[in-house]
Amino acid sequence: VHPYAQVALGILTAASRLIIAQANRDYAVSQLLEKVGSVYAFLSEDETIKKMDSMRDPLAKIARVISACAQFIKDYSETTNFWKRLRKNIMRETQITVSNYSKTLDELMQQYRDCQTRDIQINMYHVVEDHNIEGMAYAGGAGLNTMKKCLESTRREILEDIINWINDASPDAPCILWLHGQAGRGKSAIAHTVASWFKDMGGLGSCFCFARGRQGEHREEKMLTTIARDLAGHYPAFRRALAHALAEDHTLKTTPDLLQQWQKLILEPLSKAKGAIVGNVVVVIDALDESGQDLSRKEILSLLASTEAASLRNLRVLLTSRALPDIEGALGGAKHIKATCLDNVPAESVQRDVTLFVSKELGDLKEIGPMEIQQIAEKSNGLFEWARLACQFLNPNSFGQTVKERFKSLMAIPSGEGRALLDGMYAAILESVVPKSGKRFRRFCSVMRQLLMMLEPLPMTELNHMRSLFPNEDEHYDVAIVLRFMTPVLRGIGDHTSPVQPLHASFYDFLADRSRNEAYFIDTSNHHDLAYASLQLLGRELCFNICGLESSYLKNSQVADLPERIKKNISLHLSYSCKFWAKHLEVSQFDLSIATSVQVIMESERVLFWLEVLSLIGALGGAEGSLRSLVRWLEGHVGYETTSVLAIDGLRLVQNFFTAIACSTPHLYLSALPLSPHSSFLGRILVPKFSHLVEVAQGGLKDWPATQLVLQGHTSHVNSVAFSPNGNRIVTGSLDETVRVWDAKSGDQIGSPLKGHTW
């Protein structure tokens, strides 16, 4: 049986177990129980099993409908109560639902028997409950990418092993499978294949992907909230449990504390939903090694390796990464984590799959026959990324060389293993299109430097707009004159709307490491050009009420067309510049032109317009770090004292009014600005620039309050307080016999109180 069919059979088996275990079933659903039983018997027949490989679409639909039937039967009492509240006839609604499910299953089984694939509409019935989980951070664009799936009929053995592990219902089955191996082994392709198959069957809980080019988004901070929202959208029982947790403690929606997110948004709802979910909950986490530096994933690794994770028997987490020291150290020895290394897959199996891939990619080239395909597969040494690059390298449209000549060049690349083999391939590709000196070489270095230093990938149009603002006019050219030759290693080149990013993270690593690549090494130690361009954009495009909001009575989340307004009025390059100008500033040497640009923004109303954009795009949390970076960058430079003071005032404004500004952007002007201390630089310089603001007639703040946050939780006197060395945490000890740890930025308590001391 193909692994795809194994996914369907696993879901069918789990659904049947859920149905059988359901006690006190209402007579009204007995017909549906009988129908499910007949479908399961049909799918168990030898003739049915023989057809499974060729009848995937109806098989997937049957699995989805059976799963929905099981959920309907499980939630039947809640469903009838819902109908009752709507004053509907329960018997009639039940009969309609059962009849529709039965009819759909009959049609799908007949389609299966006839070996035909027809479009059959599937209607799912579930109670639409008003459980508000809005406000939790969600990492857009971090989900499943079906374009990354394995080629059909490849990686069958490893996929079978993973599917069997997911379907394993035994209590001692490990709940996490760590799939690791060298760059280019195909880890992501396997992860996205598994996620895609389970999504087809309606059995995917969540798929979350890290990407080297997206490190500026800090996806690690949103991973658990994104997974929780995905699970809530898929499993009604989980959604109810999650909504209950959020209702009891609304701060969980915005807490940066990963431990609280793990315990309250994942573990506890999963535990409460156990028994109401068909099969195991499948979560795929791809490319954890691309999250950034070790610290970016330290807490995630700690949570995955914890004994709490080991206790979740209905969870299956497929995690992929390279075996970096910190990841291997955290996951390598845990009993509830099954480690599988792609470097150890039998060579003959990998060779077969690479040969299939190369045959498909080069099958139309008459100059490449079976012997050449075999040579390429052998040269790849099991690296799928190398094989893909080799196929791109043999492009018949390459300038000045025949396919045969390029094949000879390909075979001349020194053989090696892992990274050395990929490096040789990258060098060969670049040597075929980029000279090692002269104007064209300098332009290549400049464009690739821009790409490598970007903290979030942008389309070519946006890259060109930022480049047009670089201080050196010699750099003002269309990036397409370089990028159109880079299609073997970059995506997003064919159109001007898709972000330009590497097809594989190892290419950027190759360019940025002088020890791997002397000739085409790209120095990214100075971000001067991007810092300058970002500040120029802020100076030119920021304006008051950029999205034309009419009322302060609505939260941002209540403005129905806010996403459309943002898309229309806030360009991608402006959004990028607002989020990352200070990040580029940090990695730039002090320069008068940049300092002047900063001065113009900070000493005018544009600083408020900048905060306005951050509020609208949901990135206000980064303002504090940006302003701190600016203050550090200006330290010791004469003539910018006012700019530094205004930056500190802006920091205090964000700290004191963060909740109001983040919730409703107009309150930046209507509440935060007029209620700021009049004696502050910000109050004296910026308040007069805005008319019709409310005025504090009597009292008001004379200076920024020393109290930034009130930490609430202790029930008795606090007799000891200390900051962590990095200033991010506060620890307090109290006569209530607890020690508590707090987030210094938000004031949220981190984890549960530590108990044990009596004095």
TrEMBL record:
Annotated coiled-coil segments of the chain: 91-118
Domain Nephrocystin 3-like N-terminal: 161-322
Keywords, ordered alphabetically: Coiled coil, Repeat, WD repeat
Keyword Amino-acid biosynthesis assigned: no
Repeat keyword on record: yes
Pfam families: NPHP3_N (PF24883), WD40 (PF00400)
InterPro entries: NPHP3-like_N, P-loop_NTPase, WD40/YVTN_repeat-like_dom_sf, WD40_repeat_CS, WD40_repeat_dom_sf, WD40_rpt
WD repeats mapped onto the chain: 711-752
Annotated protein name in UniProt: Nephrocystin 3-like N-terminal domain-containing protein
Provenance organism: Pisolithus microcarpus 441
